[in-house]
Amino acid sequence: MHRNKELYSFLLGVAAQLTEEWYATLNKNDKAGVYSSPDPKVIKKLKQQNNEFHLRFFQVFDTEEREFFKQLGDWIEEIGQDEEHLSTPIYFILREFFRTQEQYLDYIDRFVGLHGDKYRQEEINSWYRVVVKVFSEVMERFTEANHRYANKIMKAQQATIDELSTPIISLKDNTALLPLIGDIDTTRGMSLLENTLQKCAEKNVTRLFIDLSGVHAIDSASAHQLSQLIESLHLIGIQTTLSGLRPEIAMTAVKLQLPFDKVTIKSTLAQAISTIK
């Protein structure tokens, strides 16, 4: 009942105007995000994205529902992973969806005004309802896509952090160095255990020097994980040498009665590396 080619043609004809009106009334004082960007390229792209949304949305008045949502779904996925939109707080984006919805309802009113009593109120109400219904679904789908892609980026960033926090440096003849810097908490300790074993296996390491001179603090759970790492390395045939243990870390290990019988201890990294033949 809501499909109407005359309304569809009218809205297509004002799509460019809608975009210009939308951007002209846009709050450009947001502290972050795409809407406050002064970059001409970003502004041009933003307007193109907005106009493309109009062209796809208006098809609801002309196209079969399944095809309509497919076309609109492609736009949602594209914007959901757009770098500029990912850096924009989601509540700013939802605000603009609501503003655009108001534009559509206003222009439907204008269309009705141009045609007098040509359309029954029941049909007009169906246009209002479909606009509100589709916007509700668009915002839900966009929020899901935005969350999905944001999580994907966060996981990639975390993987990079994990990679940098567990740098296995190859030395000579299947020997390698793992220099640790900064405090080791439980989360980092778990990452250290998993990544070290994996990287040592990939590099065919048979002897690993773990230097702790850059570690200022380690909690009890992480100390246990370090002990588990040494035990795990031993089980896969890797000889481990620890160096640079600070007194505080040594005291933590003794207090927790952690077994270090499967590891060689050297006071400095230089002493440890000097044992390489």
From TrEMBL:
Q: Where is the STAS domain?
A: 165-276
Q: Which N-terminal residues, if any, form the signal peptide?
A: none
Q: Which domain of life is it from?
A: Bacteria
Alphabetical keyword list: Phosphoprotein
User: Which Pfam families has this protein been placed in?
Assistant: STAS
Q: Could you tell me what this protein is called? A: STAS domain-containing protein
Per the UniProt entry, what species is this protein from, by scientific name? Peribacillus simplex
